[in-house]
Input
Amino acid sequence: MTVAVTGAAGHAGANLVRALLAQGRPVRALVHIDRKPLEGLGVEVIKGDIRDLESLVNAFKGAEVVYHLAAHISISKDEWPLLEAVNVIGTRNVVKACLRCKVRRLVHFSSIHSMTQGPADIPLDESSPLVDSRHSPPYDRSKAAAEKEVLRGVEKGLNAVIISPTAIIGPYDYRPSHFGEALLRMASGRLPALVNGGFDWVDVRDVINGAMRAEELAPSGAKYMLSGHWVSLPEVARGVERISGVPAAGFVSPLWLARVGAPFMTTLDRLAGRRPLYTSASLQALDSNHNISHQKASRELGYRPRPFRETLIDTIRWFEENGKLTP
Output
């Protein structure tokens, strides 16, 4: 039976589509604008927009399973209207379309950012509360609100499961993602300064495997944290240096100093036509909980994240092989 995928042309979507095809499953890919990551693949491509309920109903007709990956990812503090429209109302539309089309199973991709990160000395897991403070970054609030839309659908009879990955990295990162852009700048000597913070990074292929296992095994309404390994940015940069031979940035800023300079760096990046990487929201993420537990996913889904170094090597090599980075 057909599997429909929203956000099929995104980083996780491009990996998911390939994994589904490898299982011999027919895939219907819902795309908004960009189709390049799907070129040459034997998938049914449908143009649509998750903000348009009827386009979703058209995409989901006859589908047995829906994977909902489409979202607007933001490290800005001033994009709430777009985040609400895409991440919250868009997810509400996905739930409505699944119910209307009698989809057997919805797998919703949430984010670690949907959850309250503190206190820092307590491991973050599926029981941690969702973000509810208006002082939280808009992206975090939007992903928390999207989860609530899915759970409302479960109350109405929708068979749905939620997966919450940490910071995703890995191959098939065409656009690239925010962290993919940071890796490219590191590997080409274009990131002059680092921040003394870090995050839990997870391989996109492990996330996809966990999501597909959740589709197969998880009870309706279940949620799974799909984490990897906490690694600081200076450690990441040293790893990139060992792989690429390009020296890591020599200056490592303490987080307090980076926060002071974030508005100026964001403005400079935008004036230079670059995507801002060090924003107040991204710096807040780099100072988040170090201990993200995937014990539930390991126990119930057989989830096992691969070593971070393997992910880093494969990601850099993919960028080289696809013309985004000079070997």
